[in-house]
Queue: 2 jobs
Job 1
Amino acid sequence: MSDYRFFAKPQPMPLAEIAARTNARLAGREGAGDIAISGVATLEDARPGEIVFYDSTRYAPALALCRASACFLREGASAQPPEGVARLFVADPHRAMALAGALLFPEALAPGSLFLAAGASPGAIVHPTARLESGVTLDPGVVVGPFAEIGAGSVLGAQASIGPGVKIGRNCRIGPHASLMHAFIGDRVIIHAGVRLGQDGFGFALGAQGHLKAPQLKRVVVQDDVEIGANTTIDRGALRDTIVGEGAKIDNLVQIGHNVVIGRGCVICAQTGVAGSTEIGDFVVIGGQAAIGGHLMIGAGAQIAARAGVVRDVAPGARMGGAPARPIREFLRAEALLSRMSRRSAAPSREG
């Protein structure tokens, strides 16, 4: 059950409508389509009036005891919920569950105003040359610099800082304490609390006489529908823009170096670091704590395992793991071999 202190209690939605919106085939007792759904939950915690999903046999025992009113599952699933639970058959139960949650709790999808208010707070500071379209919300402590532009419907959380000339598109959400400098932001972008965009890249000409700082003269360009997690940092480019492609999703605590180009639909998990001037193709997935070296090419559709260390180019569609990263099958075979050798060396000797 959701805590309505933090998320507004939703209007109950008929199960038939949820089925239609999720492209599900509804099966159950007569009148199942009229069941009112007002929440989402886990299999273990669900109550009547809530909907759940099932997509792994490891949760079959919990499914058998589930008390929810409805359950998303795949056609032909080996396990089924109790007789009184309506079934919604879909191609992807997790995706259907996410959509149902969004239908019931749309405000949970992005950070909103901490004051649940619209318009500019008296505590916000907006430079006279800045341009704000209609319906922009500024929480207390927001600073908007000279010649900045903010699109209609965007919400900026408390203490967010928008630097001179920064452009933010329409219907964006900028979390508390985020700072945006030297940046162009597309539409429907979500930037969570504490994000830093557009600060200096880490560029120095090294030498015995001292390390000479190289001017970072370009920008960060964030395309439409990107989401950037809390406390992630993205440096502006030195001689070319740092780019985050349309629909990319970046987790918390990620570092993106200067001149990096991230393709469309990429997913980058927490604590990953991408060094400068690397290009990442469309729909690449990078696991947590991975380290990606500089000046590399990561091909479209590649998958990089968690904690991998990538020091060479990666071919499109390749699956890589380990440090240094190598094809995932090779990495797993090596890990299995090392494990066997370790067990053998630890076994007590039978001699004597």
Note: Helices lie at 15-21, 60-64, 93-104, 328-346.
Job 2
Amino acid sequence: MSGPDPEIEQELRRLKADLGMTQPSVPAPNPAAVPPASRPQPHKSAAVRPRLSIPWQAKLLFLGGCTTVAVVWVANLPFPFVRQAVQEHFPVLLIPSYISWDYNYRQAVPLVEQAKQLINQPTTFADLDRAKGILNQAKTHVEALPVLFPSHSTRWYWHQLSFDQFRTMRESVGQMEAKLFQERQSQTLLSQAEGQLDQAKTVYQTAQSQAERVAATQQWDQALNQLQQISANTLAGQIARTKLNLYTNEHNRIIQQP
């Protein structure tokens, strides 16, 4: 059997070329013509960051600092048995407490003196209101001072202060609080007595019967007696003594009217 006719094969190739059925040949790429950025890059492993190494001296210094802070904090706890033990063996550890006591004492001194002057020599009730605020500030500083501690413990730190002064200041604040409470009670009694006087006076003057006048007179007398019983050592008592004669004269004048 003979092979295909060359003429027929040439005619078929010509027809395929006319119909576009043949694929154009693609030339092989030239490596020299490809830009460097387009060339495939070899895989690079991620750079390993160097591990931060802390010197052992720094670690030891940090640990020592934390330990020192903890020891000082425990030594200055507000417990007498802790402070006494520390004071006997390592008093220098109590320097933070000494500094705090020194500060609070110096802050409390002028406040206590100012409050004492306002409470012992008030001219108006506004002075007592002001004294209360100042006394509260002083009390905040006084409460920061130690209560139980040997008086000789801070001689090496303070030369002119002692814990006896702390105790005296604390007692002074307590006395002023009691005095201020008495002033408030007297002020309340004065306000109540004056209100009863005005009410009794109005009821008596508008009474329609003798029985109403008698009841108003009794209430009036009770209010005058209440004024007399207010302590003369208080500002309200002094005001009551000043007004008592005026109220008594007014009472007698209205009662004696026909």
Note: The helical segments are 6-19, 56-75, 80-89, 95-120, 125-142, 163-205, 210-229, 235-255.
